Request: fold
Amino acid sequence: MATDIDRKEQMQVGEVEDWTQLLNEYDYQRPERGQLRTGMVMRIDENQVLVDIGTKHEGVIPANDLRRLPPEVVEGLQVGDEIQVYVMEPESREGELVLSLNMVQVERDWQEAERLLESGEIVEAKVIGYNKGGLLVQFGRVRGFVPASQIVNLHSRTGAEGQQSAMTRMVNQSIPLKVIEVDRERNRLVLSERAAMQRWRQSQKERLLAELNPGDVVTGRVNQLTPFGAFIDLGGADGLAHISELSWQRVNHPREVLQPGQEVQVYVLEVDRERERIGLSLRRLQPDPWETIDQRYNLGQIVEGVVTNVAPFGVFVRVEEGVEGLIHASELASEGGQPEVTLQPGQTVLVKVISLDRQRQRLGLSLRRVSDEERETFGEGQGKEDEPTSEDE
Reply:
């Protein structure tokens, strides 16, 4: 049987275990600097607010912290409100637990910056100033920095005065940014407008590749001209209009029909989602002159054209926009002569239509079959409707 002494010892052991458990729970809840804790407003004084966060003593939000908050936030505090606070000092020299409401938002902004760094999302921030190295932006209650190398409209070739002038114009503007570095210990938040623009263009490109279909007609802006075609910005993604798709007439270089920055309507020829390429055409939105060519030209008709190209086998002549015919070497004026000696690009000539194939888009022309009489009467508006001669037949 247990004696009274045994029972007393057991009770003492139980009490020790209870106290140990209570101490462990207290240690678990012990606040640490930088923590966000939830508490209840216990009292609101003129110079401080007392908050119970589950510790031995109530925490204090001092007056200097309250002054950093918008007036409506402080005025809206009520006894019994549940609020989130930031632990500034677990124990001050006076033995107080010092809390902050202002730093709650700062902490949340840092956490948001870390989340954006991880996700790569784009955020907008207002430019509040600049220095010689770049732009200063406001990210919530945290100040961020955009290096000059990460600003879209600044280039390494731009001089110091030019860069300063450009950054001055950006103050008070909101710009899209991507977080590229977060260092809370050094209070360093670095963002990039250039990376944000690249990310935005990629997302726009993915959207366009998903939505566009061959046959669509869209509006774009000429971004770049190359010898083989024009790159046209469709609003975040570039499509390529090959030089052969710029016009129905022969084009030697895209600059002959387009200028950088020009707004144009284009026809979507192809959407290659795997290779992320968009093929465009300008000429498909223009009337095809070959569709009605037999309504404007007859065999034996005398027409005026401009030499566009001289080849060993003959001479190409443009008789209207989008329509070129060929004078075969055998149909040149000087029989047996070299075509390049007879005619030169840019030269205006009178020729006779000797063959016409609308389906194959072929127009045969002759220089030698134009008689002197036809040359004389052409200027008077005659010769247009001549019937085919026996020579033509």
